[in-house]
Amino acid sequence: LDLVFAEYDYVFKTDPFVPQTTLGKMIHPGGYDFIYSRGLASSSPSADDHEEPERGSADLFYVAGGRKAVGVQHLFNSGYNRCKRNRNLDAGKVFWESLVQIRKGRIKDAGAFECFSHCGSTACEGREGTKVLNYCDVSPSEFVEGSTMDASVDRRMVAYHATWTKSKDEQIAKLKHVGLWSPSC
After folding, report:
1. CA separation (Å) from 32 to 22, 46, 138?
2. Would you say 52 and 34 are in contact if contact means Cβ atoms under 8 Å apart?
3. What is the pLDDT of residues 103-132, one digit of tens each?
4. CA angle, 160 as apex, 31 and 175 as ends, to 5°?
5. 3-state SS string over 123-137?
6. Which of 179, 142, 185, 163 has the alpha carbon at shortest distance from 58?
7. Exposure class string for 172-182: b at 16+ Cβ within 10 A, else e
8. Is residue 121 a contact partner of residue 80, using CB atoms and an 8 Å limit?
């Protein structure tokens, strides 16, 4: 089962799956098992470099669960089990902690991915394909998160995550600012 998840406060300006977007480019050829948004306040919206993060975001992600079912199931179960033990922590942060622990070899068992290839890196060359998680992040210029208030000037914006707010009114103000608020919604 392939899955796209977006938090309730993600608003799409255009179709995120067309091949002209980074998400569409990564999904359509079937090269990535996990695609995520950066979702960090420190990310520059114009920086489209793909450095492997210590932590990404679970606010928007795509997972191809059918191709490498054992490894993907292990990854998500690891995050779920950590969440059950730490109910007061943010689920997205806990998921990324699990991913990092597996990536660093601190969680090992038969189902775990053995190597992580970030955005086409060659770090896993020669490894068995089912044991490699191919993952990458979407462009922060297209999938803009809420700490960025100048998003409306970038014509490449595909979606906006109205986050980094304390109230519904603040979220509405951000969505109005980027031209994505409709009172009928």
Report:
1. 12, 23, 11
2. no
3. 988 888 889 999 999 998 999 999 999 999
4. 165
5. CCCCCCHHHEEEEEE
6. 163
7. eebbeebebbe
8. no
